[in-house]
Amino acid sequence: MIGRFHSVDWQSLTFTGERHEISLRLTGPDPAPALASLRSELSDAEWQLDGHIVADILIVDEKLSDDGSILVKIEALTLSD
Fold first, then answer.
1. Which residue, of 7, 14, 31, 61, is most buried by count of CB atoms within 10 Å of its CB?
2. Structure pTM?
3. What local confidence, expressed as pLDDT, does residue 39 receive?
4. In contact, 59 and 53? CB cutoff 8 Å
5. CB neighbour class for 35 (10 Å; exposed up to 12, middle 13-18, buried from 19)
């Protein structure tokens, strides 16, 4: 379940793009395998976005909640192509 998605413009001297923050809640009887799959697929993903390149994407935080779900925060940087 996506809890929050936020994007802001980003630029350097040579590139323009956006920085994205995504918050997810992984639920179910055992969300750990879903987290492991997410970690693996993020690092191996081939992203195809019209007009953009995914320059960086990673899990920056993960926390086990009292209800057994896992809160995950992902940050990404996309550059205009």
1. 31
2. 0.87
3. 93
4. no
5. middle
